[in-house]
Each structure stands twice: as structure tokens, then as C-alpha cells.
Amino acid sequence: MAASVTEARRLIRNATRLGECHPWFRDRLERVMSGLESRGYRPRIQDAWRSPERQKELLDEGFTKVRWGFHNATKANGAPDSLAADVLDDDFPLNPRRAFLLALAQFADEVDLDTGIAWGLPPAIAQMLNEAIADGASWKGKLGWDPCHVEVADLTIADARRGKRP
Questions:
Q1: 129 contacts 118 by C-beta, under 8 angstroms
Q2: pTM of the full predicted structure?
Q3: Closest CA to 72 of 64, 63, 81
Q4: DSSP bridge partners of 87
Q5: Model pLDDT for residues 97-125, shown as the tens digit of each residue
Q6: For residue 118, which of 101, 94, 138 has the smallest C-alpha distance?
Q7: SS3 state at 37
Q8: Which positions ≥6 away from 107 have C-beta within 8 Å?
Q9: CA atoms within 13 A on the CB side of 132
Q10: Using an 8 Å Cβ cutoff, are 164 and 155 in contact?
Q11: What gap in Å lies between CA 135 and CA 35, rounded to an integer?
């Protein structure tokens, strides 16, 4: 489902995906989504929780670099408890606007979430990008390899896998 969807389907999808998230993360992700909507964007949560099988498929296809990640988090009973989500620009899902990606990163940063917008960039470039985002400035330089990914900050994947939550 990469193509743009109707507004009703987008809202239902977002509500469903938010329901797969840990409450602490869900609250902050909802604020990110509201911020984007206040700027006229139509954010869509493409993925929140992922099964281990789906995660392995994405690893094999080169879309992730980890076999188990924040998307795979579950409660003790096995129910989804995602600590990550992939948020697309529903009007341009296959090629999100740069302004959308920068706004996503800015709103995420404001609520203590991280994004993949700087992943894979040299440290000096990543620092300049993060400073531009914090200042709300435009950025014409390179972006990281997973800018639509949003996740908890200050928690390691290993800790999340052991059940630690924010």
C-alpha cells in the first residue's frame, strides 16, 4: 500500500497502527502526527509493529539493518508494543517531500523521539543537519537512509528486547 489513500482509510490506518504502539511512544507519535497535520501534511503510519518474520524479510531485502528492532517489541503476553513507526507523506508516499521529512524530524525531536533522517551520514554532516532541524531551518544537503523512521530515543534495541520501556 504505497500509493496515496483516501482520507478515511488514512485515519483508520493511523488509528490501527497507533494501537500497536507502546503507550509512551504512542502519545509522542500522536503529537508528531498532529504537528504534521497542522502544517497541512497528511502523515500515514505505514508500519508500526512488525512480526519477526516480516522483519527478517525486510532485512533480507536491505530495508533494515537489524534482525530485531523497535518495531518488533511486544508485551510480556506477546501483544504488539511497538517502539517505532514508519511515517509516510501520504500525498507523496514513494518520494516524500524534503519539507515533510524535515518537519517529521523536527516534531519528533520536540517530543524526544529519534528519526533515521541522519542515519549513515558522516558525523559532521549529521550534526549540521540536526542543528538545522532544531532551528527549523531549511536543509539542502544529504539525508540519511531512513528518514521516515521514528523511534524511541535513549533506549537501546537490546534493552527493548529484554522488555525495558520508556
A1: yes
A2: 0.94
A3: 81
A4: 45
A5: 999 999 999 999 999 999 999 999 999 99
A6: 101
A7: helix
A8: 31, 32, 35, 36
A9: 19
A10: yes
A11: 16
